[in-house]
Each structure stands twice: as C-alpha cells, then as structure tokens.
Design a protein that fits this description.
heterodimer; A: 169 residues; alpha+beta; Beta-Lactamase; two-stranded antiparallel sheet; 4 helices; 43% helix; B: 194 residues; alpha/beta; Rossmann fold; eight-stranded mixed β-sheet; 5 helices
C-alpha cells in the first residue's frame, strides 16, 4: 500500500513505489482517454503533485495542485461551519470554456480533472468515480516500499548543502 | 514529505509563518528574483489591493539531482492577519519545516508573540509541537530605527533556542541563510526520524 507513515513527532510521510506509480499512470491515462479531459492531476492533500496526464505543458501543474489542495481544505472548513460533519467529497468549478472537477480519494489524496465545457459533467463523474475506485485499490495493495532513510543519508545532506550554496549565490 | 520512487523525487514543504506585514512574502520574492530561472517555478501570490497575502504565496524550487534523486522544495507563506486563522491552519497541512518571520519593531512584539502562540496551537492540532518540530526564526526589518534588540527578541520569542537570523528581507539580508538553515534542519530531522 502507499506508505503513509506517521513519524515519531506526528508528521506524515508519503512514499510511492515505482510499481504503484506505473499502475496509477495507467488508471489516469484511461480516465483521460474516456473523458477527453484536457488535464488530470493526482495530488496529496498537502498540495504536493504526484502525477499528471494530458496537456500539462501550458499549465503550471505544481501551482494548480497547491491551489486545488487549499480549495479542498477551504471547503472542508466551510462544511464544518454549515454543520456538515463529513468533508465535501467533490468540488465543481464551471467556466465558459473549461470546467474543473475535484474529487477526493480516501483521506490523503485528490484528483483534479480539467475538461472542455463540451464534455458532459455526467460522463466525467462516472469515469472519475471508476478511476477513484481503481486508485484506492492500488493504494491498498500491500507492497513494502523502500525507506526514506535509504535516500536521505549523511552523504545526501552534505551534497544538498553544497548545492544550495551553489544555487544561492 | 512526499517521495516518488518512480521519478526519484523528494518533495518537502516549507511554510513561512509570522504576523501580518512581517515580510514573509518579501522573503519569497527575494528568493524568486535571485535564483536561476531554471531552478524555480513561478511565484504565485494571492494578494489584496493593500499588498496583504489573502490566502498564500507559493513557489517551488529545485536544486538539480543529488545521487540521482531530485529534491523539490515547496515554499508557502501564510496570511499574517489574525482573521485568516483558518487559512493558516490549512496551509500547515503536511508541513515539513517552518520559518517564523518576526517583525523586529518594538511595537510589533505583541503581534509576534500572538502569532507564535497561534502557530503552536495549530501545530498541536496536528500532533506536533514547536519543541520538537524543525523551525527557525528570522528577525526581520533590522534596518528600522525602532527595532528591538536581538537579546530581547531572543528572550521573548526563541524559547526553544532554534537557529535565528537577522534579516532585512527587502534587501535580501539573511534571506538565503534562513532558507538554507531550514532545509538543513528538515533533512536532519528526516534522518533522525528513521
């Protein structure tokens, strides 16, 4: 499963294996093909972009996922204010040329689907729901990923320090 | 922290926190203006007409590959004004390290303390505490005539003795030292946790 580790101090660490990443990419490609969505993003609720499909050249997708995460977070605060105990599960933004459909995937992730107004919302809803089902299954599959400790070792920190010095001249 | 093994990416989230008008956005603007454009994305700022951040500022920086891995740093600021309390809580979601930008001016001390307590409350709500969480403090606006002495600021704000920096963010003084320090702390912290 996607390792969402709670560390000693309470912080959260999300680790995705290469195999999971491939499977996720497959699900998103299918969603893109079925809905003709122009852009699809999968992100983590803290706003970190995990993967993307479709036209991602003209859009700064790192920013889009950061904004979408806060959009989600803002509406869940809204939910609390109006007395809705659960979070709102989906958000829909309607434009003149483009629509944006956001839907959560479990507690830790969400999908952003950007599509042309000529595509009907119903179609997007049906296929997004199917994709979420597929993604949840991938997230649940038990496979132990490597530990962050294997990447972030002593060497790594000192090299990172040098690179930062180099970049921050 | 988010690690993607397929792309060999490590994503870390760093949040600039502090009272209104203390210079959080200015820190990000300076970093953005000085970094090579190949290392940084666009700086998004959601500001009101009065130059106040309404939701957050966001910028991503990359420093190239290290041992084949690609670290990415996502920098955020929070709105300092008291009435944006819920946006602040939201932005702290999944945070890996915090830069507390304090306003050195004598009459802003209350604001600094209040915001620091607000930060501690928000962290506690997610199960963290300033005592153990990676954070640094930047005493900004050192160039102003009514700036409080570092000794007093240290005593009132830096009770956990975290790394501290003197800043004049508008001129860039202390900005990169602060950022480097928080990145190092976060990386060390990740090592210690494992």
């Amino acid at each position: 499963m996607v390792q969402v580790k709670k560390l000693k101090d309470g912080s959260r660490q999300v680790i995705l294996t290469a195999q999971q990443f491939d499977e996720i990419t497959k699900v998103l490609s299918e969603l893109a093909a079925k809905t003709k969505a122009s852009t699809i993003l999968l992100a983590d609720i803290s706003g970190q972009l995990i993967t993307q499909r479709g036209n991602t050249e003209d859009i700064n997708t790192a920013i889009l996922s950061a904004l979408a995460a806060s959009d989600f977070a803002a509406t869940s605060e809204m939910a609390k204010l109006v007395g809705e105990d659960a979070k709102f599960k989906l958000l829909f933004h309607e434009g003149e040329k483009r629509n944006v459909y956001l839907s959560n995937i479990g507690d830790n992730f969400f999908l952003v689907v950007v599509f042309d107004v000529s595509v009907t919302l119903g179609l997007v809803r049906i296929y997004t729901k199917k994709a979420i089902h597929g993604l949840l299954k991938i997230f649940e599959e038990s496979e132990q990923g490597e530990d962050a400790g294997k990447i972030i070792d002593k060497d790594f920190s000192s090299m990172l320090g040098d690179m930062l010095d180099d970049s921050f001249k | 922290m988010f690690i993607n093994w397929a792309l060999q990416e490590i994503n870390l989230k760093i949040v600039y926190y502090g009272p209104g008008m203390s210079g959080k956005t200015t820190n990000l603007e300076y970093i953005h203006s000085k970094l090579d454009p190949s290392l940084t994305g666009e700086l998004v700022t959601l500001k009101t007409k009065e130059d106040r951040t309404i939701f957050f500022d966001f910028m991503q920086i990359e420093v190239g590959r290290i041992k084949g891995k690609k670290p990415k740093f996502n920098l955020y600021t929070v709105p300092g004004q008291v009435y944006y309390a819920s946006s602040r809580k939201i932005i702290l979601n999944g945070v890996d390290g915090i830069v507390f930008v304090a306003d050195s001016q004598r009459d802003r001390m209350e604001g600094n303390i209040e915001t620091l307590l607000d930060l501690e409350n928000n962290l506690m709500a997610s199960g963290f505490s300033l005592e153990t969480f990676p954070w640094v403090v930047q005493y900004n606006k050192r160039d102003l005539p009514n700036a409080e002495s570092i000794a007093v600021l240290q005593k009132k704000l830096n009770f956990f003795n975290v790394p501290q920096f003197e800043g004049v963010a508008i001129k860039g003084t202390g900005v990169f030292d602060t950022l480097k320090s928080i990145i190092n702390l976060v990386v060390q912290h990740v090592q210690k946790q494992l």
